[in-house]
Amino acid sequence: MTQHPTAQERRPANDGPKAAARNRAALIAAAREVYAEYGLDAPLSGIARRAGVGQGVLYRHFPDRAALANAVLEENVREVEQAGAAAGANLAGVLGVLTWHLTESAAFIGLLHADRTGSRAADDVHAHASALSERVARSLRGHVTDGHRLAGAEDDLMLAVAMVSGAVTGPTRAERERRALAAWRLLGVAVGPVRPFGG
What is the pLDDT of residue 92? Predict the structure, then answer.
């Protein structure tokens, strides 16, 4: 006689905290991909779908758009900060790391423009974006030496970053990097190797 599993036996084990951690990681990974394609205005429903979870799960981990954007963009900002704090760091090297992130992520560009766009994303994440953007600015300002062309008014540095980020367009990462470096050259600013921070 064939024994059929009971409902309890058929139900997958509840992994509890493990499942929650997996879901959170999946949501951040999906948000990074979706934001890279569509920017900070991407619909949250699309992020949940790509992560393979329901919107309820998304909202349990990230109660609003700002919380999710902050989690995704934190890694970008942290790498720029690490590059700025590394032994022997200089402005060109930190700008190389920053430029790498600009070429990788439309969302990171959106972060640097969030207080100026007037978009729905700016309304949703303005406070977080401003704080993250200021952290990027601090990491760069610490390496601007007297006499450097970006040593003028306090906002000159981030204005230059915004101008370069506006040039970061193109269908491939290589094209976006080429355009970013051309923009830095036009501004007369030297940039180190365009790569993620490696420690």
Answer: 95
What's this model's pTM, rounded to 2 decimal places? Answer: 0.74
What's the burial of 82, exposed, middle or buried (CB within 10 Å: 0-12/13-18/19+)?
A: middle
Residues in the chain predicted with pLDDT less than 50, given as ranges, are 5-14, 116-117, 121-122
Q: What whole-number distance in Å separates Cα of residue 138 and Cα of residue 4? A: 64
pLDDT for position 11? 37
Torsion sign across C-alpha atoms 185, 189, 191, 196: negative
- pLDDT number for residue 169: 85
DSSP the chain: -PPPPPHHHHSPP--THHHHHHHHHHHHHHHHHHHHHH-TT--HHHHHHHHTS-HHHHHHH-SSHHHHHHHHHHHHHHHHHHHHHSTT--HHHHHHHHHHHHHH-HHHHHHHHHHHH-SHHHHHHHHHHHHHHHHHHHHHHTT--TT-TT-SSTTHHHHHHHHHHHH--SSSHHHHHHHHHHHHHHTT-----------
Distance CA 32, CA 30 (A): 5
The torsion angles phi and psi of 41, rounded to 5 degrees, stand at -85, 0
